[in-house]
Amino acid sequence: xxxxxxxxxxxxxxxxxxxxxxxxxxxxxxxxxxxxxxxxxxxxxxxxxxxxxxxxxxxxxxxxxxxxxxxxxxxxxxxxxxxxxxxxxxxxxxxxxxxxxxxxxxxxxxxxxxxxxxxxxxxxxxxxxxxxxxxxxxxxxxxxxxxxxxxxxxxxxxxxxxxxxxxxxxxxxxxxxxxxxxxxxxxxxxxxxxxxxxxxxxxxxxxxxxxxxxxxxxxxxxxxxxxxxxxxxxxxxxxxxxx
Amino acid sequence: xxxxxxxxxxxxxxxxxxxxxxxxxxxxxxxxxxxxxxxxxxxxxxxxxxxxxxxxxxxxxxxxxxxxxxxxxxxxxxxxxxxxxxxxxxxxxxxxxxxxxxxxxxxxxxxxxxxxxxxxxxxxxxxxxxxxxxxxxxxx
Lengths: 243, 140
Ligand code: SF4
Ligand code: FES
Description:
The structure holds two protein chains of two kinds. By secondary structure, chain A is of the alpha+beta class. Helix content of chain A is 33%, strand content 14%. A five-stranded mixed β-sheet of chain A has the order 2-1-5-3-4. Chain A has a two-stranded antiparallel ribbon with strand order 6-7. In chain A, helix 3 (111-119) packs parallel to helix 7, helix 7 (173-183) crosses helix 10 and helix 8 (191-198) crosses helix 10. By secondary structure, chain B is an all-alpha fold. Chain B has helices at residues 25-51, 53-68, 72-99, 107-135. In chain B, helix 1 (25-51) crosses helix 3 and helix 3 (72-99) packs antiparallel against helix 4 (107-135). The chains are: A alpha+beta, B mainly alpha. The interface between A and B is medium-sized, with 39 and 29 residues. The structure holds iron/sulfur cluster (SF4) and FE2/S2 (inorganic) cluster (FES). The site of FE2/S2 (inorganic) cluster (FES) has 12 residues of chain A, from loops.
């Protein structure tokens, strides 16, 4: 039954701030090759048709988080998703991450994303004098944040969250994932500090458990799990149950 | 600060994800929860208007207000309110359970449970609305 696909249509969001007032979509017919990723298709266009096409990528192996885009109705890493899995009919539609301001074509302004990330202090807080070699941790304690450390900060969850769309001051799933990552770390002493940051209307309480972040995350994290844990701690903290 | 070239001055964004075709279960329940919530608030205003007829016209005013509302149009309105209340209430329980830490890993199952329970209650309840609808005239 499998018809061998020779080519397909690549429909891409175009916007050039120097020429266009609004965006439009441009479609190319791209030569298909077995196993082709969407990133490869974009590079094909870039090399053969239009070198002005702007998009971000770096590692090409789903670990740097640069190439997150909105591909045929899904948040995805262009380097990870294959063309055959992103077809709608014979077309793959590639748009920039939703709601973030477009700088050019598929490149969005990530300023808020990174600012919000920095707000939760995503580093180990511990002023105790460091031991001679390293701060040790048992394998069980280490396993408590197994999920969170898989985050590659691609921005998919941030773009997908309706709470963030309506208010960019909302920290966003990615920042809360990182807050939880250190909150769960037995070596970290910054619980109180971070609860101050997340226990308010721009933090965990703005999460309406829509689960868009869970659907969006290309690394299969469950940011809502992290947020709900912080939410419970935040409640306890606000009620004075956590010192 | 050279803000001139900053992207905040370029209102171009991709709103593609607002196409209901691409909504996942969580987005559906989020949207339905807001719509039903607004509908219930509108009902509350109507309800206040309806019961304050006693202030405007005394016992008689209230009686005639009630009588005028025994009409098909209002039955449809009540039925819509019933849909909104059923979904909003049951989904609300799901949201509370989520905030208590339950079901974060089975969010799809949670959605479908709410959906099925609501559908059953709505199906049963709708029978009574149909009966009322048939019994009333279009207007008085
Ligand atoms: S949680 Fe997932 S979607 Fe969000 S930034 Fe990290 S890897 Fe990307
Ligand atoms: S290019 Fe690095 S994640 Fe896709």
